[in-house]
Request: fold
Amino acid sequence: MNQIVDFDHGRWGSFDGEFEAGTHIRPVRIYFEDTDFSGVVYHAAYLKFLERGRSDFMRCLRVSHATLSDQGMAFGVAHMEIKFIAGAAIDDLLFVTTQIDHYTSARVVFSQTVLRSGNPILQAKVTIALIKDGRPQRLPLEIRQLFDEIAT
Reply:
């Protein structure tokens, strides 16, 4: 069986974001493609930013989405709550923060915030599950151990 953890992400360094006291922080620059006709970030674009935050959170823990996929597994969103506080515009530099709120044997609830100039412009709670053959799976022990390590 392939290992899920321990692939080399070090080549790009902070491109994937970084952990600070158990919170993953990832920069996102706003491009024209992220905005609507009024020049403000289109609401659905924030879903991509949140996804990048969660994906890079796992990547920085050395959890390989490619290896999970090779084993027929993937993380899927089960539930999402979003509070839009303020808008962003082209050229803004945002930071997506991601941390584990809590997890069970089969689900992970993330707290995510999008910040501009240190101020929250979006807050989200996102529940994900590990899926294989259309059914939720227990989180592998090695992933749960990584979650425990960053929580302390």
Notes: The chain is about 20% helix and 40% strand.
